[in-house]
Amino acid sequence: xxxxxxxxxxxxxxxxxxxxxxxxxxxxxxxxxxxxxxxxxxxxxxxxxxxxxxxxxxxxxxxxxxxxxxxxxxxxxxxxxxxxxxxxxxxxxxxxxxxxxxxxxxxxxxxxxxxxxxxxxxxxxxxxxxxxxxxxxxxxxxxxxxxxxxxxxxxxxxxxxxxxxxxxxxx
Length: 171
Known about the structure:
Structural class: mainly alpha
Strand content: 5-15%
Largest sheet: 3 strands, antiparallel
Number of helices: 7
Radius of gyration: 20 Å
Distance between the termini: 28 Å
Strand order of the largest sheet: 1-3-2
Number of strands: 3
Helix content: 55-70%
Order of helices and strands: HHEHHEEHHH
């Protein structure tokens, strides 16, 4: 891919970044983090914080905060450049971290609906809440299975919730 500075991003590349933003913001991803993620997806090689800042025309502090969030979601990885303090970022090979977090929340909603339905609702509302809860729990199981099959491990072990995902990160 050619050098991608703010002067060389094509209209199609700019549109791609905007489309990534449009899809990720409803998932709760801040707009700037989604822009950086879309931008990094376009790069085969790691990109410096300075280059991201220049190309997206945003402040270094804004870029740094957004990149940290993407790291926490395991959507990007930080790399160091030998002999310098310069930090480079590259898009991760999968989005398993973000999907694992969403799967965990889907499961928690399922558990809440199933276990509390009889104590907070009556009649048909109980049945409806339990059915929706069962649906959520089934979706969590299916998502976890698929994520596990498609990522490196594939060992059949249940995926951790977000509180454990943070513990797995090493930098």
